[in-house]
Write a structure and sequence with these properties.
- With 201 residues, this protein is an alpha/beta fold.
- The chain has a single domain (2-199), classed as 3-Layer(aba) Sandwich (Rossmann fold), CATH 3.40.50.
- Helix content is 29%, strand content 33%.
- The chain contains 7 helices and 14 strands.
- The protein has helices at 12-21, 32-37, 49-58, 61-70, 80-83, 180-185, 187-199; strands at residues 2-5, 26-29, 40-43, 75-78, 86-89, 95-96, 101-107, 117-122, 124-125, 134-139, 141-144, 150-156, 158-166, 169-172.
- The chain has an 8-stranded mixed sheet. Strands 6-5-7-11 form a 4-stranded mixed sheet, with helices on one face.
């Protein structure tokens, strides 16, 4: 069972349509019992890092996500949801994240680039299926890490992690659900994550 987590900060309709176009069944729920019973969780996000972490804590979802990942179950973060997977963020202060991927969320240099990065940009990827893909970004902060988790990145003054993966945790900084046919093709990464979990259990 795949569940998109409803914690009040997500672009849900487009995500639901993304899965629907691929004939993949997903739930959309804020019910902890449903979330806990799910095999794969999708953590969306639009807005501020501080607000997102506050809502996750208020809904007791931080502990639920910790247990989910510790059990080897797949977790996928999209846009702000991907940023929440990291250790911390410097968006408007300093805030601890979920800590599933080492690294910090930091601001772009506004003297060097227009902020937010809004629009289409090209990926460089070690996954040949998605190298040179053109995808849609909307964000003002990016993940800074040792790049060991990076599957694909884009250039925006700096190298910006765009697809990241560490064990059973996967993240997309861009919006695959708004990236046309190539974004639709990227659902295979979620299917592969799900298959890996199923095959190991």
């Amino acid at each position: 069972m795949i569940t998109i987590i409803d914690y009040g900060l997500g672009n849900i309709r487009s995500l639901m349509n993304w899965f629907s176009r691929a004939s993949m069944d997903v739930n959309f729920s804020n019910d902890l019992s449903v979330i806990q019973a799910s095999d794969l969780l999708i953590l969306p996000g639009v807005g501020a890092y501080e607000d997102a972490m506050k809502k996750l804590k208020e809904k007791n979802l931080v502990e639920v996500l910790d247990k989910h990942v510790s059990a080897g179950k797949p977790l996928v973060g999209i846009c702000l949801g991907m940023q929440l997977l990291y250790d911390s963020s410097y968006e408007g202060g300093y805030y601890k994240g979920l800590g599933f991927i080492p690294g910090d969320i930091v601001p772009f240099d506004e003297e060097e680039v227009k902020v937010p990065q809004m629009g289409w940009n090209t990926l460089t990827s070690k996954d040949e299926r998605f190298d040179s893909s053109y995808v849609y970004f909307v964000h003002s902060y990016y993940a800074k890490s040792d790049f060991s988790e990076v599957v694909a990145y884009t250039e925006y003054d700096v190298k910006v992690p765009a697809i990241v993966k560490k064990d059973n945790v996967l993240g997309f900084q861009f919006h695959p659900e708004k990236s046309g046919d190539i974004g639709q093709d990227m659902l295979v990464l979620i299917k592969e994550l799900e298959d890996d979990y199923i095959s190991s259990n």
